[in-house]
């Protein structure tokens, strides 16, 4: 389960890094992070983690 979390973390990091290199607006990156964090917390609740 930790490996899955690490994989997701590295994936999100690379996605954000590529977005930053494209030099998109910071608001878009913030929205991406917020949506991602919500999905992670929902996934943790569904898998029984606190």
TrEMBL record:
Signal sequence bounds: 1-17
Superkingdom of the source species: Eukaryota
Keyword Signal: yes
Keywords: Signal
Protein name from the UniProt record: Uncharacterized protein
């Amino acid at each position: 389960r930790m490996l899955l979390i690490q994989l997701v973390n590295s994936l999100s990091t690379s996605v954000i890094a590529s977005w930053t290199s494209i030099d998109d607006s910071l608001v878009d990156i913030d929205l991406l992070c917020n949506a991602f964090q919500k999905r992670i917390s929902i996934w943790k609740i569904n898998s029984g983690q606190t």
